[in-house]
Amino acid sequence: MTEQKPTASRRRPGRPKEGVELRDAILDAAEEIFSDAGYSGAKVRDISAAAGVNQALVRYYFGAKQDLFDEVVRRRGAAISGARHVLLDQLLAAEASPTVEKIVRNYLKPQWDMKYSGPGGAAFVRLQARLHAELEEHALRLRSEVYDASVKRYIAALCDVLPDIPKEVMSLRMAFLVGTYMFMLNDLGRLNDLTNGQIGEVGKDAMLDHLTAFLSAGLRAPLP
């Protein structure tokens, strides 16, 4: 007698290795499709097809498309924010007054590493660029939920080592930092457009070194 596969009605939260694997498969597929098509262009039927499940199972695990999108953002966004907290904790435990460069590099590194971690990480970086370009209220709330706690800790750490820069100015400069590194994560091809092909291929670590030096100089620049 042929063994029957479990049906959707038999999968319940907490059963679960299979449930966890199905959820991850759906999230992986959604991540790719949201990153390529954007929220409005993504279709649940395409996500379910890419994940190898039916649309009812997507709704069973995640509810509406908006809920699925939010979970995609939270999954890797929380990993990035968590890694930033850990790196800052380690840095402050090791050094009472770390350099601006070390603080900046620790902030950048989790997302930089994610971009190069494989197709899923690269897709999330593309998706994140779309999210940061959105001014819609829900997108702003989601970004705030996922990233604000870690960003505020880094602003505080930078204010400690650069006491002559007021907090409101440091917060503004942190926004400049985010915009710059998001561009570099997502539009590296523009470098050769702007330099008539003279830059060539810049490696992952070398690019992070250049970016850290540039952003650190901006953070410590004299007040206008």
Would you kindly provide a written description of the structure presented here, covering whatever features stand out?
By secondary structure, the protein is an all-alpha fold. 75% of the residues lie in helices and 0% in strands. It starts with 16 loop residues before the first helix and ends in a 5-residue tail after the last helix.
Number of helices: 10
DSSP strand content? under 5%
Radius of gyration: 20 Å
Low-confidence stretches: 1-17
Report the sheet with the most strands, covering strand number, pairing sense and barrel closure.
none
> Could you say which overall geometry the principal axes of the C-alpha atoms support?
globular
Number of strands: 0
Helix fraction bin: over 70%
Structural class: mainly alpha
- Give the distance, in angstroms, between the N- and C-terminal Cα atoms: 79 Å
Question: Helix and strand succession?
Answer: HHHHHHHHHH
Q: Could you report the average pLDDT, rounded to the nearest whole number?
A: 87
Descriptors:
mainly alpha; globular
SSE blueprint and pairings:
Blueprint (H helix, E strand, L loop, with lengths): L16 H25 L2 H8 L3 H8 L2 H30 L5 H16 L3 H15 L3 H25 L5 H20 L3 H5 L9 H16 L5
Helix pairs in contact: 1-2, 1-4, 1-6, 4-5, 4-7, 5-6, 5-7, 5-10, 6-8, 7-8, 8-10
